[in-house]
Amino acid sequence: MGSYVPSTAGQRAEMLQAVGINTIEDLYAAVPQEMRIDAQPAQAGMSELEVADTLGRMAGKNRVFSSIFRGAGAYNHYIPSIVRRITSKEEFVTAYTPYQAEISQGILQSIFEYQSMICALTGMDVSNASVYDGATAAAEAAAMCRDRKRSRILISAAAHPMVRQTIQTYAWGANAEVAEIPVKDGRTDLEALKGMLQNTDAGVYLQQPNYFGVIEDAAAIAQAAHDAGAKLILGINPMAAALLQTPKEVGADIAVGEGQPLGMPLSFGGPYLGFMATSGALERKLPGRIVGETTDDRGNRCYVLTLQAREQHIRREKASSNICSNQALCAMTAAVYLAAMGPEGMKQAASQCYSKAHYLADALSRIPGFALTNSSPFFHEFVMTTPIDADLLLSKLEEAGILGGLPVEGGILWCATERNSKADIDQLIETVKEAVGA
Fold first, then answer.
1. In this predicted model, what pLDDT tens digit does every residue of 23-36 receive, in sequence order?
2. Nearest to 176, CA basis, from 138, 136, 203, 206
3. Strands 67-68 and 126-127
4. Residue-wise pLDDT tens digits, 269-299
């Protein structure tokens, strides 16, 4: 990998002296040696044809599966063609962020529409313009709950591991405590939670459905949190939200989640979208920006940045967040997807996810050695034991062109969405039978 440094050697030496170090390598002293890549001499420039051929060969090393039975936070959903058609328009792709709101009415309106749809999906009163991803949204929500007297956050051990880690990282930076609520039969243990709650707890984070695909008793957990004076943060799958009770209906104070299922392809893990919505009582604690609707001096409808709790505008020591941007294009993608699907389309897609996952679970459970690890109800993911090594089974599936579930403690976490046809599932079952000798 080559690099181009525009400054002179003398300028670099002056800058290094100003920060108290001798070499540029000293800037990376905190990076472990095993994570560094030795600098390579700059290569001669290549022609456009050579670059295209090189990138083509690199891309050819990727393996793209058409039959996918893996979820665990990123899901293979059908995306109507109109979504890409609209969001790929040049005026949308090139827009970064509405710093000059008075000349960004189109982008501001798209964000306002996105916020409105997130509120409709969650039942909450107000949404922000989005944050970087679902894990960031969860960690920012935990920060919203803290105050001088309450700082500890309780996290369900059934939440996504990356979300738990992100909340813990934010808490470490804020010198705040985090505790995990144990799991029982695939669900957050309600009685254990009641025994853990203290009068210094700020909030409880619950995922619905949880990492194991199980549908939680969110209303009971919300009640337990409120009885102790804490708030409930509910991390939701937006597709499941089309069928389940809304966060508002179960008593959540803040609803967050990963917006990838709303029209975004898997794309090797991003870019994705973190959505956040809350009750009116907490709207001024929402990080980032909120777009509102108003009228101009001629009485025409227009859009403005109603709230923007940005670090440039407030004193750093009083800021609860350093989020200063939003995923504008991803948020627009989610809005276009939701508009294209409509409430009934979302319900149909969610219903297909549910029914196909249960068809898959039933078919797998008929094979000796496969069994659900718990009896709790699930949406479109479930954990099942396997009679042979999980990695061996998944490699056999890969040979047949199938991306199977994710190995987890206790077995494999399987997922089915509306993209999995009955023929796909039946092919998976036959391949599994051959792999285990059934």
1. 988 988 889 988 88
2. 203
3. unpaired
4. 889 999 999 999 998 889 988 999 999 899 9
